[in-house]
Amino acid sequence: MLKSPLFWKMTTLFGAVLLLLIPIMLIRQVIVERADYRSDVEDAIRQSTSGPQKLVGPL
Fold this sequence. Notes:
single chain, 59 residues, mainly alpha, 75% helix, 0% strand, rod-shaped, transmembrane helix, Uncharacterised_IM_CreD, membrane
């Protein structure tokens, strides 16, 4: 079984797929970090503004 060309081709293909998944996972982590940072910035801006305003006047 270990001398079968099909076995080595499948093993090589599986190894290549695993190696290609590493950069994809790293890029996905960067996207998640940037989304979290954006959310934090939006919250900071929301807290630093005056908030909703109420207009009062004659009706």
